[in-house]
Amino acid sequence: MSAPVRYEVDGRIATVTIDRPDARNALSSEVQRLLTELMGRAEEDPEVDVVILTGVDPAFCAGLDLKELGAGTMSVAQPAGGSEGRSVSPLRPFPPIGKPVIGAVNGVAVTGGLELALACDFLVASERARFADTHSRVGIQPGWGLTVELPAAVGVRRAKEMSATGNFVDAATALAWGLVNHVVPHEQLMPFCRGLARDIASNDQASLARLLDTYDEGTQLTGADARALEARVSADWLAARASEVSAGVEARRRVVVERGRTQAG
Length: 265
Prior knowledge:
The protein is about 50% helix and about 15% strand. With about 260 residues, the protein is of the alpha/beta class.
């Protein structure tokens, strides 16, 4: 029997695919364990710069496996342990990694599946994507950051509406609300995400990793402290890499200018 989560690497892009279509890619204990393991593998692989997370059609992820939860074989308070010395985070669907994660939302992302999508750095949605928070309908509480990440994406009032009603939000509304970055035709979802991933992989990876860390650290601070953090990181970066930056900046500038002309044209 094939594993419920697949891992592939091509051109510095790792694709992690939940493959439980009959269960609408629900998050069983085994899926949670494998997500932790495979995200860790991508983190440690020097041949990987960016990760795409998706599900096998027709769903992105329907949330926790309620059959397993109802049978008492899964505890949402004590997730299954990961392999290779890693443990499944009790605060996220997968532990944070230092490489960008693109969520390719090909279908419904519900409750825990919505939290899984929100754990990605940004989202691209198929026109078939739908989003819903049904924690209150099921009678459980979110534990993977939904009450933090969802209002950060769509605003507190819209987040409360989604949680209070349990209603589905379609892809066009998700785009208008800021939940997703792009909506594309279903058959273009993975090619579009790979195009974004190639753009990410073409950057200076050390600089990008530090920049994304600054975003994450800044969200935990007030405005003034976040600005001070950015200034400190910038100064420290330049001080540590002054000769490297000076030697390479002109060549990189020319690449940026040429790329800008190509995209503008």
